[in-house]
Amino acid sequence: MLRVSNYNYVKKYFLKNLKKTKNKKIHKKTSLLSTDRKHLNSLNQKGYCVVKNVFSKRFIDSLRLDFAKEIKELKNISCPRDLRLQKKNIEQINLPKLDEKTFLQGEKKFKNFTDSIKLKDPLINLPRIIQVALNKRIISICSNFFGCIPYLTFLKCVKTFKNQRKEHDTQHFHIDENSVKLLKVFIYLNDVNSKKDGPFYYVQDSFKNIKEKWGKNARWNENYLKKEYGVKKFKPILAKRGDIIFANTVAFHRGIKPIMKNRNIIILNYGMHVDFTFNNKLDITSKILKRDLSKLTKKNKSILSLLSTVN
Ligand SMILES: [Fe+2]
Question: According to the CATH classification, is domain 7-85+92-310 in 3.40.50.720?
Answer without folding.
Answer: no
